[in-house]
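Researcher: Please translate sequence to structure tokens.
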Amino acid sequence: HPSDVIRSWACELVATHAPWSLADKLDRIRPLAADANMGVRECAWMAVRNDIAAHLEEALTLLVPFVHDPDPNIRRFATEGTRPRGVWCRHIHALREEPARGIILLEPVRADPSRYVQNSVANWLNDASKSQPDWVQDVCRRWQKESPTDETAYICRRALRTLTKSAKPKP
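Model: Translation complete:
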């Protein structure tokens, strides 16, 4: 449909169609996750986030092909949809407590060429740093050693921003 509002509503229709499995919903939401309009893309991940949280292990497995997709919007959908402390939505408590469960989605995009994806990965890790700071620091140290690219350095710098800010002495 030419209207981004109608396409945004379509996200909710996909998410609320009870007979569909999570796999079906992710398959049907995929074109909306790749939409040219940022608002539609945001509606896409927010629409299925509760299903992702409710079926986390299945969702993590189903989202692996998303982080390998050539479209950066699809890659970002997987990371935004699983952020431990997502913006404008409920937290995924299992990922707040055990962010290592999400590493399967983060590893393939640790040096992503898209700044859009890089920011999402960094925000994912920054979310995790608020409850599991040691884990995030370990991941960033390992990534910088294994993937010494400008992209990985950018992701890690942004991922550690809350920890870096809290470590600075207050004037």
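Researcher: Any highlights?
Model: The mean pLDDT is 95.
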